[in-house]
Design a protein that fits this description.
This protein has 231 residues and is α/β, with parallel strands linked by helices. It has nine helices and ten strands.
Amino acid sequence: MLNVDRIDLHYGAAQALKKVSLQAEIGKVTCLMGRNGVGKTSTLRAVAGQHGITSGTITWDGTDISGLPAHARARKGIAVVPQGREIFPLLSVKENLETGYAPLARKDRSLPDSIFDLFPVLKDMLSRRGGDLSGGQQQQLAIARALVTRPRLLILDEPTEGIQPSIIKDIGRAITWLRQQGNMAIVLVEQYFEFARDLADSFAVMDRGEIVMAGDAKNLDETKVRGMLTV
Protein backbone atom coordinates (compact mmCIF):
# COMPACT_ATOMS: atom_id res chain seq x y z
CA MET A 1 0.00 0.00 0.00
CA LEU A 2 0.94 3.66 -0.36
CA ASN A 3 1.47 5.58 2.86
CA VAL A 4 2.09 9.32 2.71
CA ASP A 5 2.97 10.41 6.23
CA ARG A 6 2.89 14.09 7.25
CA ILE A 7 4.71 15.49 4.26
CA ASP A 8 5.59 19.13 3.70
CA LEU A 9 6.45 20.50 0.26
CA HIS A 10 7.77 23.91 -0.72
CA TYR A 11 8.16 25.81 -3.98
CA GLY A 12 10.96 28.15 -2.97
CA ALA A 13 9.77 30.03 0.10
CA ALA A 14 6.11 29.15 -0.50
CA GLN A 15 4.76 26.13 1.37
CA ALA A 16 2.35 24.12 -0.80
CA LEU A 17 1.73 21.13 1.49
CA LYS A 18 1.46 21.06 5.28
CA LYS A 19 1.66 17.71 7.13
CA VAL A 20 -0.31 15.88 4.43
CA SER A 21 -1.09 12.21 5.10
CA LEU A 22 -2.77 9.89 2.61
CA GLN A 23 -3.13 6.13 2.14
CA ALA A 24 -4.02 4.00 -0.88
CA GLU A 25 -4.54 0.23 -0.84
CA ILE A 26 -4.30 -2.40 -3.55
CA GLY A 27 -7.74 -3.14 -4.99
CA LYS A 28 -9.22 0.17 -3.85
CA VAL A 29 -9.77 3.70 -5.17
CA THR A 30 -8.72 6.64 -3.01
CA CYS A 31 -10.19 9.97 -4.15
CA LEU A 32 -8.43 13.23 -3.36
CA MET A 33 -10.76 16.21 -3.72
CA GLY A 34 -10.63 19.96 -3.29
CA ARG A 35 -10.85 23.27 -5.09
CA ASN A 36 -8.22 24.43 -7.59
CA GLY A 37 -4.92 25.45 -6.04
CA VAL A 38 -5.27 23.67 -2.68
CA GLY A 39 -2.39 21.21 -3.18
CA LYS A 40 -3.87 18.16 -4.89
CA THR A 41 -1.46 18.11 -7.83
CA SER A 42 1.46 18.93 -5.52
CA THR A 43 0.57 15.84 -3.50
CA LEU A 44 0.63 13.70 -6.64
CA ARG A 45 3.94 15.19 -7.73
CA ALA A 46 5.38 14.34 -4.34
CA VAL A 47 4.21 10.73 -4.59
CA ALA A 48 5.48 10.36 -8.17
CA GLY A 49 8.86 11.92 -7.35
CA GLN A 50 8.35 14.90 -9.63
CA HIS A 51 9.01 17.34 -6.76
CA GLY A 52 10.96 16.68 -3.61
CA ILE A 53 9.37 16.91 -0.17
CA THR A 54 10.75 19.04 2.65
CA SER A 55 9.82 16.65 5.46
CA GLY A 56 7.76 13.56 6.18
CA THR A 57 7.94 10.17 4.45
CA ILE A 58 6.39 8.40 1.47
CA THR A 59 6.31 4.62 1.70
CA TRP A 60 5.31 2.26 -1.11
CA ASP A 61 5.09 -1.50 -0.74
CA GLY A 62 6.92 -1.32 2.60
CA THR A 63 9.85 0.72 1.24
CA ASP A 64 10.61 4.37 1.95
CA ILE A 65 10.73 5.99 -1.50
CA SER A 66 10.92 9.61 -0.28
CA GLY A 67 14.36 10.15 -1.80
CA LEU A 68 13.92 8.22 -5.04
CA PRO A 69 13.77 10.08 -8.38
CA ALA A 70 10.69 9.78 -10.59
CA HIS A 71 12.19 7.20 -12.97
CA ALA A 72 13.07 4.89 -10.07
CA ARG A 73 9.52 5.13 -8.73
CA ALA A 74 8.18 4.31 -12.20
CA ARG A 75 10.25 1.13 -12.12
CA LYS A 76 8.61 0.30 -8.79
CA GLY A 77 5.20 0.34 -10.49
CA ILE A 78 4.05 3.92 -9.97
CA ALA A 79 2.36 5.50 -13.01
CA VAL A 80 0.82 8.95 -13.45
CA VAL A 81 -1.88 10.17 -15.81
CA PRO A 82 -1.19 13.93 -15.64
CA GLN A 83 -3.71 16.73 -15.71
CA GLY A 84 -3.91 17.97 -19.29
CA ARG A 85 -2.97 14.51 -20.64
CA GLU A 86 0.50 15.51 -21.94
CA ILE A 87 0.49 13.11 -24.86
CA PHE A 88 2.99 13.61 -27.69
CA PRO A 89 0.98 15.32 -30.47
CA LEU A 90 3.35 14.50 -33.33
CA LEU A 91 3.77 10.82 -32.41
CA SER A 92 1.25 8.22 -33.54
CA VAL A 93 -1.07 6.59 -31.02
CA LYS A 94 1.07 3.44 -31.19
CA GLU A 95 4.26 5.43 -30.58
CA ASN A 96 2.64 7.26 -27.66
CA LEU A 97 1.72 3.92 -26.12
CA GLU A 98 5.22 2.60 -26.66
CA THR A 99 6.69 5.44 -24.60
CA GLY A 100 5.27 3.46 -21.68
CA TYR A 101 7.98 0.85 -22.28
CA ALA A 102 10.62 3.08 -20.65
CA PRO A 103 10.49 1.59 -17.11
CA LEU A 104 9.97 -2.00 -18.30
CA ALA A 105 12.42 -4.82 -18.80
CA ARG A 106 12.86 -5.67 -22.48
CA LYS A 107 10.91 -8.94 -22.16
CA ASP A 108 7.85 -7.02 -20.89
CA ARG A 109 7.74 -4.46 -23.70
CA SER A 110 4.45 -5.22 -25.38
CA LEU A 111 1.03 -3.59 -25.55
CA PRO A 112 -1.43 -5.38 -23.23
CA ASP A 113 -4.65 -6.52 -24.92
CA SER A 114 -6.55 -5.15 -21.92
CA ILE A 115 -5.94 -1.53 -22.95
CA PHE A 116 -7.80 -2.11 -26.21
CA ASP A 117 -10.58 -3.93 -24.35
CA LEU A 118 -10.94 -0.87 -22.12
CA PHE A 119 -10.53 1.70 -24.91
CA PRO A 120 -11.36 0.00 -28.24
CA VAL A 121 -11.24 3.28 -30.17
CA LEU A 122 -7.45 3.33 -29.74
CA LYS A 123 -7.03 0.08 -31.68
CA ASP A 124 -8.60 1.71 -34.73
CA MET A 125 -6.36 4.78 -34.43
CA LEU A 126 -2.90 3.30 -33.88
CA SER A 127 -1.44 5.04 -36.92
CA ARG A 128 -3.06 8.45 -36.27
CA ARG A 129 -1.10 11.25 -34.68
CA GLY A 130 -1.92 11.92 -31.04
CA GLY A 131 -2.60 15.57 -31.77
CA ASP A 132 -5.36 14.62 -34.22
CA LEU A 133 -7.43 12.88 -31.53
CA SER A 134 -10.28 14.57 -29.68
CA GLY A 135 -9.75 15.60 -26.08
CA GLY A 136 -11.60 12.56 -24.81
CA GLN A 137 -9.63 10.21 -27.03
CA GLN A 138 -6.38 11.81 -25.86
CA GLN A 139 -7.43 11.19 -22.26
CA GLN A 140 -8.06 7.54 -23.06
CA LEU A 141 -4.63 7.41 -24.70
CA ALA A 142 -2.98 8.96 -21.63
CA ILE A 143 -4.57 6.35 -19.34
CA ALA A 144 -3.66 3.53 -21.73
CA ARG A 145 -0.06 4.76 -21.90
CA ALA A 146 0.14 4.57 -18.10
CA LEU A 147 -1.31 1.06 -18.14
CA VAL A 148 1.38 -0.08 -20.60
CA THR A 149 3.87 0.28 -17.70
CA ARG A 150 1.96 -2.45 -15.76
CA PRO A 151 1.50 -0.18 -12.74
CA ARG A 152 0.67 -1.31 -9.23
CA LEU A 153 -0.12 2.29 -8.23
CA LEU A 154 -2.08 4.32 -10.80
CA ILE A 155 -2.41 8.07 -10.17
CA LEU A 156 -5.00 9.98 -12.20
CA ASP A 157 -5.06 13.78 -12.04
CA GLU A 158 -8.55 15.06 -12.95
CA PRO A 159 -9.24 12.64 -15.82
CA THR A 160 -12.73 14.08 -16.45
CA GLU A 161 -11.57 17.67 -17.00
CA GLY A 162 -12.92 18.98 -20.31
CA ILE A 163 -14.16 15.53 -21.39
CA GLN A 164 -17.53 14.75 -22.98
CA PRO A 165 -20.01 12.77 -20.82
CA SER A 166 -19.89 9.58 -22.92
CA ILE A 167 -16.13 9.25 -22.47
CA ILE A 168 -16.38 10.13 -18.76
CA LYS A 169 -18.57 7.02 -18.47
CA ASP A 170 -15.98 4.96 -20.36
CA ILE A 171 -13.24 6.18 -18.02
CA GLY A 172 -15.38 5.37 -14.99
CA ARG A 173 -15.98 1.84 -16.28
CA ALA A 174 -12.24 1.43 -16.90
CA ILE A 175 -11.36 2.49 -13.35
CA THR A 176 -14.00 0.13 -11.95
CA TRP A 177 -12.58 -2.77 -13.99
CA LEU A 178 -9.02 -2.00 -12.91
CA ARG A 179 -10.06 -1.98 -9.26
CA GLN A 180 -11.83 -5.30 -9.67
CA GLN A 181 -8.62 -6.96 -10.88
CA GLY A 182 -7.31 -6.55 -7.33
CA ASN A 183 -3.66 -5.93 -8.26
CA MET A 184 -3.52 -2.14 -8.34
CA ALA A 185 -4.01 0.79 -5.97
CA ILE A 186 -5.66 3.81 -7.59
CA VAL A 187 -5.42 7.43 -6.49
CA LEU A 188 -7.93 9.67 -8.23
CA VAL A 189 -7.78 13.46 -8.02
CA GLU A 190 -11.15 14.83 -9.02
CA GLN A 191 -13.44 17.86 -8.69
CA TYR A 192 -16.44 16.21 -10.39
CA PHE A 193 -18.14 15.14 -7.19
CA GLU A 194 -20.54 12.51 -8.55
CA PHE A 195 -17.75 10.77 -10.48
CA ALA A 196 -15.53 10.66 -7.40
CA ARG A 197 -18.32 9.58 -5.08
CA ASP A 198 -19.37 6.68 -7.29
CA LEU A 199 -15.83 5.30 -7.57
CA ALA A 200 -14.28 6.01 -4.17
CA ASP A 201 -13.57 3.42 -1.50
CA SER A 202 -11.96 6.13 0.62
CA PHE A 203 -11.59 9.88 0.25
CA ALA A 204 -9.60 12.88 1.42
CA VAL A 205 -10.45 16.55 0.98
CA MET A 206 -7.77 19.25 0.81
CA ASP A 207 -7.88 22.94 1.60
CA ARG A 208 -4.91 25.35 1.65
CA GLY A 209 -2.34 22.61 1.44
CA GLU A 210 -3.78 20.44 4.21
CA ILE A 211 -6.04 17.40 4.47
CA VAL A 212 -9.13 18.71 6.25
CA MET A 213 -11.42 15.69 5.94
CA ALA A 214 -10.79 11.99 5.23
CA GLY A 215 -12.35 8.58 5.74
CA ASP A 216 -14.27 5.71 4.16
CA ALA A 217 -16.51 6.68 1.25
CA LYS A 218 -19.54 5.19 2.99
CA ASN A 219 -19.13 7.83 5.73
CA LEU A 220 -18.73 10.72 3.30
CA ASP A 221 -20.86 13.75 4.21
CA GLU A 222 -22.03 14.84 0.75
CA THR A 223 -23.27 18.28 1.78
CA LYS A 224 -20.09 19.15 3.62
CA VAL A 225 -17.80 17.87 0.86
CA ARG A 226 -19.77 19.63 -1.89
CA GLY A 227 -19.42 22.85 0.09
CA MET A 228 -15.67 22.43 0.17
CA LEU A 229 -15.53 21.92 -3.60
CA THR A 230 -17.53 25.05 -4.38
CA VAL A 231 -15.61 28.19 -5.28
